[in-house]
Write a structure and sequence with these properties.
82 residues; mainly alpha; 2 strands
Length: 82
């Protein structure tokens, strides 16, 4: 009984140590890989997309092509609780 308890405690400690090291190991691996190569390079024409405006009407980038200049700004987690 005592041997089973010791081996169970050992397995528990091993599981805790492994779970604590895993995020660190994953972070180190991610640093080695580096960021992914962007699909769109500076100076490329932006791919067409459609989003909803403030009135929930769809607006596409192609609607403005040749008519107006468009500047895109992306704010991560803007207007969210994130």
């Amino acid at each position: 009984m005592r041997t089973k308890l010791i081996s169970l405690a050992g397995l528990l400690l091993l599981a805790l140590a492994t779970s604590a090291l895993s995020p660190r190991m994953r972070a180190q691996e991610a640093k080695k890989e580096g960021p992914p190569e962007p699909a769109v390079k500076v100076g490329d024409m932006a791919p067409d997309f459609t989003l909803l405006d403030q009135n929930r009407k769809p607006v596409s980038l192609h609607d403005f092509r040749g008519k107006k200049s468009v500047a895109l700004a992306f704010y991560i987690f803007a207007f969210t609780n994130g």
